[in-house]
Amino acid sequence: MAPRHKLLATLIVVVLVSIIPFTLPEVTRAQNNDELIRMTVTVWNNKGPVKGLTREAFQVADEKVAKQVELFEADDAPISIGLLIDTSGSMNLGDLREKIYSKPGEEVISLFIQRGNQNNEYFVGSFDSTSRLLADWSTASNLLSRTTNISRPKGQFKTVLYDACFAAIEKMQTAHHSRRALIVITDGQDNESQHKFKELRNMLRDSDILFYAIAVADSEDVASSLGMEGQTVLEELASVTGGRVYYPREKKEMAEVFSTMNDELHNQYRVGFRRGQLDPVRQWRQIKLKISPQVKSKEFKNLSFRTRQGYYTK
Question: Looking at residue 14, what is its pLDDT?
């Protein structure tokens, strides 16, 4: 393979269905006709993710009104995952390619897919001045069976991060699993989107999608005003969903990031409650979650957790 074709050819192993604009048909959100508000909860202690909690350990309040937990799942159920890769001019793709390798010939994203639940499904997209759907929903085995080249068109220094995420969230409405996560590899910068940051944040707030970001930037970018703005954007988007932002700086750290994400996705809880009859006017409802383990155990001490912050009434 000639050097110019090797830039990001092995960034991820995927089947290239087609390179098309990342636009999707209107899809009615499931929550419109469903009173059950779902939450994905990540719980951890100082050793990592914590499993073994029972339904009784979770107390939920909707705007300070206690709710009965009617949905509780603690198994490693399949998840629908979207992967978005920023190929704009602000990204150092050569540096990114280096960080993607954990060992020669072993791409960390491929390892992430291999080690995930084999019943997971994935789609892959990229974006710069436009967003593109590279691979539609596919199983892990199909995704790993072929390769495609994820590269940047010449002269593309515009970035439509918000538009790409917006389209990816809409794409998630066609997922086959109720657990859903969007993983974005980017520096967080946007200078061309039609959608605004607040629109994207509100869309994520209203979803049950975990937003994970892998902030890839060199030390100079991190210290710049644009770099700091990008980090703030990513942190805000992750926090409203119960997701997380990672800041790998080396190849080893990139591998650790994907390993940590796999651990989280394998060890999460699904909690749901009925929202009841509410004012039809669209309004923001804040969710408060408390975890009180019923069993005395060292593993259940000093627990921390992340989940979505609330939801909008319809």
Answer: 37
CATH of the domain at 12: 3.40.50.410
Q: Answer yes or no: are the C-beta atoms of 211 and 182 closer than 8 Å.
A: yes
Q: Are 158 and 129 in contact (CB under 8 A)?
A: yes
Q: Strand 58-62 and strand 180-186: pairing?
A: unpaired
Note the pLDDT tens digit of each residue in 16-47.
333 445 554 443 333 444 589 999 999 999 99
Domain boundary among the residues 245, 266, 287 is at 266
> 229 and 288, same structural domain?
no
Residue 42: domain span? 35-74+270-312
Residue 46 dihedral angles phi and psi, to the nearest 5°:
-70, -5
Number of CB atoms found within 10 A of residue 247's CB? 14
Residues 67 and 82 in one domain: no
Q: What is the pTM of this model?
A: 0.86
Q: Name which of 165-179, 183-197, 274-288 the model is least confident about.
A: 274-288
Cα–Cα dist 285/309, whole Å: 9
Q: Are residues 149 and 82 in the same domain?
A: yes
Residue type, 274: R
Domain count, the chain: 2
pLDDT tens-digit readout, 218-232: 655 555 666 789 999
- Separation CA 19–CA 21 (nearest Å): 7
Nearest Cα residue to 305 out of 58, 52, 70: 58
| Residues 248 and 141 grouped into a single domain | yes
Q: Are 286 and 240 in contact (CB under 8 A)?
A: no
Strand partners for 82: 123, 182
The answer on 202 and 143 residing in a single domain is yes
Beta-carbon-side half-sphere exposure of residue 46 (alpha carbons within 13 Å): 3
Give per-residue burial for 32-59: e unless 16+ CB within 10 Å, then b.
eeeeebbbbbbbbeeeeebeebeeebbe
Better-scored residue on pLDDT, 185 or 29:
185
3-state SS class at 285: strand
Same domain, 50 and 199: no
